[in-house]
Amino acid sequence: MGFNIVTFARLCRSGWTFVREGVPNLLAPPDPPPGPAFVLRVLKAFERRPEPGVDTGARLSNALQRMGPSYIKLGQFLATRADVVGRDMARELGNLQDSLPPFSEDAARKAVESALGRPIEEMFESFGPPVAAASIAQVHKAEMKGDDGSVRSVAVKVLRPGVQHRFNRDLKSFYMAARLIERFHPPSRRLRPVAVVDTLAASVELEMDLRMEAAALSEMGENTANDPGFRVPNVEWQHIAKNVLVLEWIDGIKLWKHEDLAAAGHDLPAIGANVIQSFLRHAIRDGFFHADMHPGNLFVEPDGTLVAVDLGIMGRLTKAERKFLAEILFGFIRRDYLRVSRLHFDAGYVPPDKDVELFAQSLRAIGEPIHGQSASDISMAKLLTQLFENTERFGMETRTELILLQKTMVVVEGVGRSLDEEFDMWRVSEPVVRDWIEKNLGPAGVLRDTADGIGTIGRLVRELPMLAERAETLSNEIQEMGRNGLRFDAATADAIGRAEARHTRSGRIALWIGAVSLAAIALKMVL
User: Fold this and answer.
1) What is the Cα–Cα distance from 89 to 92, expressed in whole angstroms?
2) pTM of the model
3) What angle do CA 282, 284, 289 make, to 5 degrees?
4) Which 3 state secondary structure label does DSSP give 136?
5) What is the spatial distance between Cα 104 and Cα 467, in angstroms, rounded to a whole number?
6) Distance in angstroms (rounded) separating the CA atoms of residues 182 and 191
């Protein structure tokens, strides 16, 4: 992709906005090295002077809204980390979760009618104004009549007009920034900035299709049908489209409304524990988790049940990744740092030329200070800085397959801390992790894996005749090539001849290499 002056100008404008609102110093590590510390001091000189009656959080929130939906998501993430940005800032940024300016009700009605192909009055008994608006979509409360004549409340989610175009525009800026970073700062290449943006782009593509969200709600509903204290809304399958989703209306309190939750008699620390344990069950047990679990997407029903909405961004883990996550957490819970270190090396997350025991020592330096400590005694900013230093010291690259998991773990841990000042991540995680370890790595798990292995062997045995036939075919073709050389059919040979007449000698060589490569691929497919 070539250089685009418009995208570059937009990127510069975003950077200048961040500098003016003090974001670099807001997110700076506690004790930066001399070079970055000097840069931060220079940038601070360009920060906007505080305006009377307008705090930094409100100013930053307004700036992020102006910059676009991708930046709004950054604000939503920061809102979950009051321990990093401060309580006042987090409170203001919390408005980005579902309190953005809505688009008009008339535009929403037209979008619903166009997407579902029927007038609003035919589908709904009533259709109200927007009750929540976020960066991607807004929600309207409506009523539908069932087959039995009863009327039920539903939530109608409608994508913002033009939101995909705005996201694509933001992504162009992110790609340019990532490529510039990789080009001019070689040490950052291990963090794979372009691959990180690729992951973001893929998740955004899915989030723009509400049919995929409906499918995610259905899958998670099946996975969690028997889970204590957690559920997702039911989908109205006859009323979904790419930009419209109709689902069960949830009568509950938003998780960020702490005072309302307390007034309703809910146990806030218990809710915080439920958020963490629910997320771990989904990630470790199911390998399918809600990757946008900020408080604006979580409700608490009168009986204390946690209800998750807005499943546009979902994460998946393979069985090997789930096993790795469970064993890593269990190792930290048991303070077995050498085992945690070996797991990292076995998974290939740490280069093999590094020292296993030295890495275990560095993990101990991270884990020991936070064991048994309450949330109020732990500086998440310092902890994240130490973790980042660790990845640099041991040459660890960003694992794009784990980006959504890592981001969501930071968010849900922040949610837990916001609900419980004495929150202990390890204590809360232990029951879920231990249960999975016992079921999957104990005797029952070994027997199950053995049965899976026997099943695989059985399938292989059934396919042996076909594999033997393919092997014989390949052997005959290789022998034929050895006797007569590599041959192409008449059409292929004729195409190569015409191309040779048109291209230079170097072009002919490239064409022949391509042809031979295609032949090699074809032989592989025989296997």
Assistant:
1) 5
2) 0.75
3) 35
4) coil
5) 62
6) 9
User: Rounded to an integer, what distance in angstroms lies between the CA atom of residue 70 and that of residue 204?
Assistant: 9
Helices 193-207 & 403-419, crossing angle to 10 degrees? 70
400: its two tokens = 């794009």
292 is catalytic: yes
Please state, in angstroms and rounded to a whole number, the distance separating the CA atoms of residues 167 and 206: 12
3-class DSSP state of 299:
strand
Mean pLDDT, 10 residues at a time, the chain of 527 residues? 79 86 73 80 83 70 81 78 72 76 93 95 94 90 87 95 88 89 85 85 88 97 95 95 96 93 96 94 94 91 96 91 88 88 89 93 86 65 68 81 81 88 85 89 54 57 66 65 57 56 46 38 35
Q: Which helix (H) or strand (E) holds 138?
A: strand 137-145
DSSP 432-491: HHHHHHHHHHSHHHHHHHHHHHHHHHHHHHHHHHHHHHHHHHHHHHHHHHHHH-----HH
292, 310, 420, 424: the active-site residue: 292
Q: State the chain's maximal CA–CA distance in angstroms.
A: 88
One-letter-per-residue 3-state SS of 316-373: ECCHHHHHHHHHHHHHHHHCCHHHHHHHHHHCCCCCCCCCHHHHHHHHHHHHHHHCCC
Task: Count CB atoms within 10 A of the CB of residue 350.
Answer: 22
251: tokens are: 């009568």
